[in-house]
Design brief:
This protein is of the alpha+beta class. The protein contains 13 helices and 38 strands. Strands 6, 7, 8, 9, 11, 12, 14, 15, 19 and 20 form a ten-stranded antiparallel beta sheet that branches. An eight-stranded parallel β-barrel has the order 21-22-23-26-27-28-29-30. Helix 6 runs parallel beside helix 7. The chain is globular and about 80 Å long. The protein starts with about 20 loop residues before the first strand and ends with a strand. Bound molecules: alpha-D-galactopyranose. Alpha-D-galactopyranose binds next to loops.
Length: about 750
């Protein structure tokens, strides 16, 4: 069955919604929304929250049709023994458990009697014209918004559940979370606590999610929504590259530019679960939570558990519009505001040029190369601290190696800065090596379940950040480094997943809490550091994209998307990540060729252009590599420096992505310049001529393609499209643009708005 959708206005630029964002009728219909979506639910006569509608803006949202009570169902259970009131075929807002709804519930708890039957009924509500911060967790920032807090109660358990819904006037995002408070006399065990439940009515849906592995993140997978349950999760203690905490439920056949899409993402960096369940009556329930089978939380009387925040986006204009909504929101409401429109420095990173073979004189000579080739910052990536000549040692001992860095890191940073460069440093502060002073002093600081032997990965253990004193130690050791005032950038790495999760500091019944307590500890460290050092660019990394998520982004404006530095390998990674993330939050560098990850040889242009639309652009090459291609590298680094202001706050668009060809557009935020990159993976002869039909160009303006001097009207660029360069079998000097020879070719087109 096709979903029947009215047209949705295109973006927040479409005009503000006037009046309240949340209304409540006398018969308790809650209508939330703005000019791009409506979200409606109501309280039934039994006190159950019934979900009524989520989609394009309704003229009179509170008139959304109610559920009917069906009389013909055989074997249906009557909830509360009300005739024909069966929860199993109703869309619900936050379902309890064990009472006539057989789909997955929002809350799973057990009390001392062993009962897990949860009946959640409306108690009260209030609306506030702000967005409350979530206790100890990252969440989107407020602004022009309203928050509805609906309180539900379960009288038998003595539980009180606050459901929080924030609607912004100018963004197509609905933010949700839940607070569970134990108002009873005995403790309860929380086994699952959804951030949000989204019940979509019967329809034919497809699912889209992002999965991957090391150096291969953000693969897009799309499938028909089957009957039964599909779920993605992480039990690795990090959101992980295996499954990204994002899921889109799509109207069957929806595409890049058409069709309904419901996108869901979690603002959290640890274990999670997002499931989609098609029940027996064809509706689909999407549940977003931090819970995994290992999760359990003891909630003592009087205590509250705050779930992470789930974000929802509805688009009736396919994936492209969904991405626009995410991008605007992530940039404005998640990522640290100080960096929103801040051009990022270009950089030379030491990792793929030197690995662990690094010392003070090498850093200084790399700094000279960096200066000559025209980059802004030198980053010492690993290998700089006491004894760190391999990955088997020294994590935890965050002082410069005395033999290889005799001046010490603050003095070295000063020397680099005297050359007119910024200075950046790699750290991995959540980790501990067995061969370290820190381990010798505190072997018991390793994250490990009581009675287990911790496993190493990349030769290292994880510090138990669920313990306050260890989180404080991590803060203090990073603070000691940064307090010299000469560090402009930090690459914060995390190179192993968790295993044997548990903590000797907690009793047996709280071992299921440790993975989440670790995240709370980590977030507290990040909050303190980003408050103390608001001007430092923190770049989040976890062996590439193993913890690339909205939670980390709240504290760190930039993230290293993948260790896959080969440009062809990186194309699908950037394309997949762009479903949610604006490229303002990513960085990329020109790596050596042949590539160290997959051995592929590519041109400098292709290596640069694959990451050209990321905010942070640079090189990871040694002095010889730089000397060999100096002019070309200098050309691109100058281009990157000159265009740095354009690559924050603009609009990224996926024009097309096929097995062999990729085309992306980036529009500078004022619309004065539009950049297009085009990649042809394998060359061929006599191929059809490709065209790029650009998006959201001013139709009445004229644009000059600066590479050739040709002029195009904006409407033609969108409707007819610009012919893309190709590799000809005869090269004429005719002023046209051609693709470079051979495989892995790429080119850049720059359109300048023509001023008469
Ligand atoms: C991880 C990162 C790399 C690099 C190394 C250093 O693998 O993803 O970019 O920083 O650590 O050890």
């Amino acid at each position: 069955m096709k979903l029947n959708l009215p047209n949705q206005r295109s973006s927040r630029g479409a005009g503000p919604s006037i009046g309240p964002l949340i209304t409540v009728t006398e018969d308790r219909v809650f209508a939330l929304g703005n000019s791009v979506f409506s979200y409606v639910f109501r309280v039934s006569a039994e006190g159950v929250l019934e979900h009524l509608y989520y989609g394009a803006t309704l003229g009179a949202a509170s008139d959304a049709p109610r559920h009917d009570r069906r009389v013909f169902q055989h074997v249906a259970i009557n909830f509360d023994n009300q005739p024909n009131y069966n929860l199993n075929n109703i869309c619900l807002e936050y379902p309890g458990a064990g009472r006539s709804d057989y789909r997955q519930s929002g809350l799973k708890v057990r009390n001392a009697t062993g009962s897990g039957i949860v009946s959640l009924r409306y108690h009260s509500h209030r609306i506030v014209s702000e967005k409350p911060d979530l206790d100890d967790l990252p969440s989107s920032r407020g602004g022009d918004c309203e928050t509805l807090i609906v309180t539900l109660v379960d009288e038998e358990f003595g539980l009180e559940i606050d459901l929080l819904y924030t609607v912004y006037r100018d963004y197509g995002v609905l933010a949700r979370s839940a607070r569970i408070t134990n108002k009873g006399v005995g403790d309860v065990r929380l086994q699952d606590a959804a951030s949000s439940v989204l019940d979509c009515p019967v329809g034919d849906y497809e699912l889209l999610h992002l999965h991957g592995t090391w150096a291969c993140e953000f693969n897009t997978e799309r499938m028909r929504m089957p009957s039964g349950r599909f779920s993605i999760n992480s039990t690795r203690g990090a959101s992980s590259f295996a499954h990204h905490p994002f899921l889109a439920l799509m109207e069957e056949g929806a595409g890049e530019t058409h069709g309904a899409v419901f996108g869901t993402a979690l603002v959290y960096s640890g274990n999670f679960k997002i499931s989609a369940e098609k029940g027996e009556f064809g509706g689909v329930r999407v549940i977003t939570s931090l819970s995994t089978p290992e999760f359990e939380w003891r909630l003592n009387p009087g205590e509250t558990f705050q779930t992470p925040e789930a974000l929802h986006v509805f688009s009736s204009g396919g994936l492209r519009r969904m991405s626009r909504f995410w991008h605007e929101f992530v940039r404005d409401k998640i990522s640290p505001p100080a960096f929103r429109l801040k051009p990022r420095p270009t950089y030379l990173n030491s990792w793929e040029s030197a690995y662990f073979d690094i010392d003070e004189s090498k850093v200084l000579s790399l700094a000279d190369c960096a200066k000559q080739v025209g980059v802004d910052m030198l980053v010492v990536d690993d290998g700089w601290f006491e004894g760190r000549t391999t990955n088997a040692t020294s994590l935890g001992d965050w002082t410069g190696d005395k033999k290889r860095f005799p001046s010490g890191i603050p003095a070295l940073a000063g020397l680099v800065r005297e050359k007119g460069l910024k200075f950046g440093l790699w750290i991995e502060p959540e980790m501990i090596s067995e061969a370290s002073e820190l381990y010798r002093a505190h072997p018991d600081w390793v994250l490990c379940a009581p009675g287990s032997t911790p496993s190493k990965a990349r030769n290292q253990f994880i510090l138990d950040l669920s313990r306050q004193e260890i989180a404080d130690h991590v803060f203090n050791s990073v603070d000691a480094l940064l307090s010299c005032g000469r560090i402009d950038y930090i690459k914060w790495d995390m190179n192993r997943p968790m295993s044997e999760v548990g903590s000797s500091a907690f009793p047996p019944e709280q071992q299921g809490e440790i993975a989440h307590r670790y995240m709370l500890g980590l977030y507290s460290v990040l909050r303190r550091l980003s408050d103390a050092y608001p001007d430092i660019i923190f770049e989040n990394c976890a062996s590439g994209g193993n913890r690339f998520d909205l939670g980390m982004l709240r504290y760190m404006p930039q993230a290293w998307i993948s260790d896959m530095a080969d440009p062809i390998g990186r194309l699908p990674i950037i394309n997949g990540a762009s479903l949610i993330y604006p490229l303002d939050v990513t960085s990329a560098y020109v790596p050596p060729s042949p590539n160290h990850q997959n051995g592929r040889a590519t041109s400098i242009a292709t290596r640069f252009l694959a990451g050209a639309f990321c905010a942070g652009r640079g090189l990871s090459l040694n002095a010889d590599d730089i000397a060999a291609d100096f002019d070309e590298l200098s050309h691109w680094m100058t281009w990157a420096r000159d265009t740095a202001p354009d690559f924050v706050g603009g609009e990224f668009t996926r024009i097309f992505f096929t097995d062999n060809e990729v085309c992306w557009q980036y529009s500078e935020r004022s619309g004065a310049r539009i950049y297009v990159v085009y990649f042809q993976i394998l060359s061929g002869v006599n191929k059809p001529f490709a065209r790029a039909r650009l998006a959201d160009v001013d139709p009445d303006s004229v644009y000059t393609l600066t590479e050739t001097g040709e002029r195009f009207r904006g409407d033609a660029l969108m409707l007819s499209g610009v012919p893309l360069p190709y590799f000809p079998n005869r090269l004429d000097d005719d002023g046209l643009l051609y693709l470079e020879h051979g495989d892995f070719a790429s080119c850049l087109l720059t359109f300048e708005k023509y001023k008469k």
